[in-house]
Amino acid sequence: MPNKKDGGLFFPGTRYENRGTNIPVEVNYSGVTKRQWYAGMALQGILSQHYITNTVELAYRYADAMIAFEANEKEEV
């Protein structure tokens, strides 16, 4: 499968966690890509309509379409 544009990261950040000591440890999280986020949101809508087959594939098609739409919108500005 060819690499697709993933739209960049959503929700990256740094958190501090107490891992069994009294000193918090800094932990970096990369987050998820826009493609993963959009696919997850699309999947929720698809499943709410009781689709049974190809749900994940359909969710990623919607995600890819949203990323392509965003890219076209940015080029027009």
Account of the protein in words:
This protein is α+β, with helices and mostly antiparallel strands. It has a domain at 33-77. Helices cover 48% and strands 18% of the residues. It has two helices and four strands; from the N terminus they run ββββαα. The strands form two sheets. The protein has a two-stranded antiparallel ribbon. Strands 2-3 form a two-stranded antiparallel ribbon. β2 (13-17) and β3 form a beta hairpin. It is flat. The model has no long low-confidence stretch (mean pLDDT 79).
Strand order in the largest sheet: 1-4
Largest sheet: 2 strands, antiparallel
- Cα-atom radius of gyration: 17 Å
Helix content: 40-55%
Q: How many strand units?
A: 4
> From N to C, what is the helix and strand string?
EEEEHH
Q: Helix/strand-derived class?
A: alpha+beta
User: What oligomeric assembly is this protein in?
Assistant: single chain
Average of the residue pLDDT scores: 79
Number of helices: 2
Q: What share of residues are in beta strands?
A: 15-25%
Detail the poorly predicted runs: none
- Report the span from N to C terminus: 31 Å
Shape category: flat
